[in-house]
Amino acid sequence: MRKxxxxxxxxxxSSVSVVGKKESEGPLGSLFDLRDEDDRFGGKxxxxxxxxxxxxxxxxxxxxxxxxxxxxxxxxxxxxxxxCVGSAYGLLNFDLPYFGLYGACSTCTEGLILASMALxxxxxxxxxxxxxxxxxxxxxxxxxIEYGSQRxxxxxxxxxxxxAFLLGKEExxxxxxxxxxxxxxxxxxxxxxxxxxxxxxxxxxxxxxxFKATGKRPEDYDRIVTGDLGFEGGAILQDLMxxxxxxxxxxxxxxxxxxxxxxxxxxxxxxxxxxxxxxxxSAYYLPKLQSGELRRILFLSTGxxxxxxxxxxxxxxxxxxxxxxxxxxxx
Amino acid sequence: MRKxxxxxxxxxxSSVSVVGKKESEGPLGSLFDLRDEDDRFGGKxxxxxxxxxxxxxxxxxxxxxxxxxxxxxxxxxxxxxxxCVGSAYGLLNFDLPYFGLYGACSTCTEGLILASMALxxxxxxxxxxxxxxxxxxxxxxxxxIEYGSQRxxxxxxxxxxxxAFLLGKEExxxxxxxxxxxxxxxxxxxxxxxxxxxxxxxxxxxxxxxFKATGKRPEDYDRIVTGDLGFEGGAILQDLMxxxxxxxxxxxxxxxxxxxxxxxxxxxxxxxxxxxxxxxxSAYYLPKLQSGELRRILFLSTGxxxxxxxxxxxxxxxxxxxxxxxxxxxx
Lengths: 331, 331
Hints:
- Two copies of one chain form a homodimer.
- The first copy, chain A, is α/β, with parallel strands linked by helices and 331 residues long.
- Chain A folds into two domains: 8-168, Peroxisomal Thiolase, Chain A, domain 1; 174-327, Peroxisomal Thiolase, Chain A, domain 1 (3-Layer(aba) Sandwich), CATH 3.40.47.
- Chain A has helices at 21-24, 46-65, 85-90, 107-120, 134-141, 195-214, 230-243, 255-258, 274-290, 308-312; strands at residues 6-19, 34-35, 74-78, 98-100, 126-132, 157-158, 161-168, 174-180, 223-226, 252-254, 271-272, 296-304, 319-327.
- In chain A, helix 3 (85-90) links the parallel strand 3 (74-78) and strand 4.
- Chain A is globular.
- Chains A and B meet through helix 3, strand 4, helix 4 and helix 10 of A and helix 3, strand 4, helix 4 and helix 10 of B.
């Protein structure tokens, strides 16, 4: 029988968040490390802009942590673009062993778990970089933003942002204690404008497996945070957890609900995208854990792994949620 | 300073290859485990066919190795479809922690390295599944096969095939001794019909780093095998290695050159795709290693990580090559 939960015990040494204009104007705006006024980051195309966000995020991470790319054993990276080219081009100029990932919006915690496993397996330093870009994602998955298509109330707003993380074994930093990799779950949701509903059952599955395997309860954590279920999916997850007798209550929150002002910024069901959980983890949760304001949290990035073509072919949306348990230093 | 080469020392316990009609008619045809006469594998679409290949490959792997999905700690999978949906749908029905990968045609060895690192990090059994499908890839990257577009002499033929591998620690099986993860290399090649030229420099980079780090020479290996450089890229790699004073000579071979009969099957520069190196490794090289006919080989899957859109936007093709060193049992 397999271990559902991996004991990892590594440290999140440093992180960087890079965001676009809308994100910098949101409630967390002042917390992000870097922002851009036109979301192009000096690129000719939105796609170049997304790659530049990744390059900026990782470059700043190296500067911030005072190490060079040749000190890092491996880089785990991914994004939402077809063939993950946002990462391939963005990180091209670094001299680094590269593992390309595709976990849709779950890529941030997928990368954190794989980087931690690499450290347990003997590596010294590993990097994780993920990103998403609103204009790139809307054009690829739905329709170009220039069309001004009306959005459904359950639709989410893909975050323009990139997060970069450096993981190692040094003490005194936020600890990544355990990981619980997600399973692919598909519950029949076919609506591209309601990914929260497609992803909520995946978050449920991972949380229930984690609590069963560890004997922990939601009360053991200061926060239980999902990546981008948004308002729709977040409410569904809370209903499902309550129905399973494991209510999350007030300790539940979601990065997609935190990153925008729902009233002032017209984002409907909240934020989404690989960049969403990455920048909120980096800018909002890691500092609270480092300072001890939060002592222990569960953090799950959630991903909807369909493609536009699979939806046209009548397939439902498969989803996944990877969980990491994070702890304040010296607990 | 990082270790360029990872000491892994795990075993390839079992593997399965599933191929389409053209592959089953090639020189290795009789060696593959499963084949289909119309490349749809009972699916309504080519995409469903590819997912079914993955399901068949992994299901057969479980049967062959006498274990159940709940015995396996994690599954590493990927393919060439947008958002890697071939794997997401194909492996949906297995009860398994799932790590989605995107390494283009390098995904096979990317998965083998990550699965091995997971084993070193404490897992007991890990699976790797990768696939490609000719009709799916041609429609997505170039043009639907129904158009009958003329192909360039340097163009390769995407293999319809899926390979599945089970890795563990048990002795007496083919050993995966070391891994050398690739770096993203881009040398200015923009021609979608000449991916061999784009990928050869990535294979060169990985091989040179591996030989430098280990002090080994090509003469130390019975074979040095690339995944899908084909005839064009394979010749370029041999020229480049010779120019660097490390000629590969007759011990060099390429899965894309082996899988089809170049004269009788009209595949121009040879086979390619995530499935190419996976099925040739499973059906051709692993048995030769298991029997001791080959004692020690270097195996590199090579990937071209562009997207059709990045090419339209004038970007060159980034490539990567992940290397594993494989050894006969009890050496």
